[in-house]
Inverse folding.
């Protein structure tokens, strides 16, 4: 047990893996884009992207990028199997669950509740990853976020947040909720909220960076 | 935009991916096992497993399984790049960070602070996943947890918890902290803690299930 410690003995590398991630992203970018919310209830877990094509001031650059194709998501997220982190869902294949569908519906509600967003400006694309492939979910989500750096993932925090629940409303409103007020539970958050001017400034910085690429 | 919704257009499958996960796990299981804490400071992110070889009553079955090889971890975890979820770590390769090393040191502290555990009974194994391979971290961690179902992941919650911090000590002590009292911040948690008999019962159920396999 007292052999010498050699860092390199612990380092894993795989070229084949890079290829697979590219393959999933290519598949993802080939899935049909649909309006939010999904038109029918469907089961499964996976990864999704939300696109904005509105003419709003703040996201004008984004709408421009998406003018002729859905090329820049405003948000990327995942829906993992229930109990997945704890390895508790041994019976997952027998009961159909609706995580991805549910997540897209939650996001629809957030957008509808925001005073200054309308659901008609939002579209989504999603990829179902089930059974063995469900362990790809986090990897693909991370790769998509790293690749696109969507503004609601990388710059404006809070879109994907949930109601913190009773006894926890002492926390601060998120940047997203400052920018898009309206979610009833967010309005209950009594902590010191980020300054709206600073949040708008952050959004502007994001688009400046994007342009310089 | 009003084409028919077809679920199957959204489902991704990949056999090559299953092979890669098996390859990473095989590599992981071939990495050297070392005592906790790591003997030298090393940089990087990745996945780790902690093994228990003590003679304690509660985990006697585990020690038995690990008598001639490290075959059943008590806990599996990951250390991801800082800012990884938000895609903010653009400069990650230039600054060396020590997430994995830090996580193993935190766990060492938790074990040392527990009244009824001793660090000499604990070993670990870890795999560094960096650069592109860092997006494999969550997938490999999940696969290892699903495969081994370590008791501190799947049955007894709370080992990996952090100090909730000022203003949040109204939450309950975790199952792990009930079973292994001693972490100073856990002792401050004033919520209704799980009953120790019930937690011990849960541990017993875990080992019964393991045996029946």
């Amino acid at each position: 047990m007292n052999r010498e410690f050699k860092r390199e003995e612990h380092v894993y590398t795989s070229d084949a893996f890079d290829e697979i991630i590219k393959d999933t992203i290519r598949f993802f970018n080939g899935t049909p884009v649909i309006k939010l919310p999904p038109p029918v209830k469907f089961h499964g877990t996976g990864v999704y992207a939300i696109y904005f094509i509105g003419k709003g001031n703040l996201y004008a650059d984004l709408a421009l990028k998406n003018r002729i194709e859905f090329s820049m998501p405003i948000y990327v997220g995942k829906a993992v199997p229930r109990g997945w982190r704890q390895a508790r869902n041994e019976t997952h294949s027998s009961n159909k669950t609706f995580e991805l569908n549910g997540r897209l519906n939650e996001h629809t509600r957030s957008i509808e509740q925001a005073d200054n967003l309308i659901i008609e400006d939002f579209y989504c694309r999603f990829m179902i990853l089930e059974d063995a492939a469900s362990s790809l979910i986090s990897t693909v989500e991370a790769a998509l976020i790293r690749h696109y750096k969507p503004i609601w993932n990388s710059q404006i925090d809070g879109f994907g947040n949930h109601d913190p629940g009773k006894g926890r409303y002492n926390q601060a409103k998120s940047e997203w909720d400052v920018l898009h007020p309206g979610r009833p539970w967010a309005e209950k958050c009594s902590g010191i909220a980020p300054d709206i001017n600073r949040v708008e400034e952050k959004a502007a910085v994001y688009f400046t960076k994007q342009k310089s690429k």
